[in-house]
Amino acid sequence: MDSLLFLCARRVVAQRPLPALPADLHPVLFQAAFLDGRPLVLRDLVAAWPFPVLNFQRLVGRRELLRDHPCKLCVQAVILAVVAQLRRQLEEPGHDASLRVLDITGLPDSASGRAPDGMSVWSGTVALAKACVEVSKHQREFQRRGSKRHKGRSGAATAAAAPQPPGVDVHADLFVNGTSYGILRDALQTGAAGPLRLKCREFQAEELSASGIVALLESLDPSFLRRVDLRFNNLGLTGLSVILPHLSRFPELRSLKLQYSNVDVRRPTPESAIGIRCLAGQLGMLPSLRELNLGSSRLSGNLRQILCDLQAPLESLELAFCSLVPADLAFLSQSFHAPALKRLDMSGHDFSQGLLEPLRLLLEETSASLLHLDLMECRMADSHLDALLPTLRRCSRLRFLGLYGNSLSTAALKDLLQKTLELPDLRLVVYPFPVDCYKPEPPPPPPESAWNFEEPVDEELLAAADAEFCQMLANSGRADVVWTSNPYGHGALDFFSL
Q: How far, in Å, CA of 316 to CA of 328, rounded?
């Protein structure tokens, strides 16, 4: 229920221009204007912002709340207001403003939300980059005009020595691909010393060359970056050996995601052995690293060599579709990473064969810390789940369990539900379509583990199973737990604290 103060703020921002109000009311007015979609009011509020910091998430609230509200025009309005403020400070040296930091990190990507006019991370990156370039261009033009007004050497020196506004640092999460590469490169390189400066917390790049990624990384503030996500870049070990040395300049880098990097070391060669040693050494140069994603790399038998130089235990390890063998899981069970892991993704491995017992031993070692476990598309049947259940029940802090894409029956899932009710923190279980809900019978497993959206599922049987699970949860007083067969639409459950 909204507070009386918030309800009053909604009435105030419904009209424009705003009346003169005390400074301490600006945060609740900003919240009301943002959630009600009033971009013009937001521009007015930012223009008169009385504090040095404007942090979206602190002002507006949870990512879940933001996800259901249109924000594209509102975010753009705030950026434009900051640009207008800086232009005015350049033109009127006596004019000053309080705002020094605009923090828009953590905004939800509209691609995963339900708001039709939400702002994606890509479009937000482009909007910020264009703003930085625009303000830097305006600064240069202003300085040129000043130089022309003062003829002679002393006049030029006077113009160059004119005081410049302190500017605004923009803390943001940046996403770049081939389309947005040019404008972001220009913003980072020309705007680093300008009035509007990008400070990247999370950097994500898709489908870029190694040299392009390096050029952007070299332009980022080394003290601020905490997560790097490189996906679909077809880098291979050669490309990674070019990029990873540049990450050692980021002392706060805690998360590195390298999924779909086209790394395949299943067949050892002298070149791949050198590449693995190089990769391991470069990972070892990242002292703050706590999260690593090597998804879809073919690592069979090489996990020990890749992780051997890490200086501290990982808290999050994603190894989906990595072609692991029993020796890889055995190493992980005996490593110093196991008792520290909060998130573990082993999706896409065949646990119907010799990997099941190594997985059980690994879960034993992670049971005291594990919060998030993905075992999707792992060819698990009822007997395999039954063998894992005693260990799963010892994962006392587990919050998320992903089992989508396995061949489990309704009876096995009911047994899982009943036996995991004792896990007090469990909040979300993504279960597969039960095999007895297919019509007329379950399809044979595909030759390669992959998503299959053409399976003939009986929607009535599936709805009945879902209703039965919900009733069991309600009868047990655990309506706080969500059981769903939909692997999408729940937002990213990120248990790795940045």
A: 16
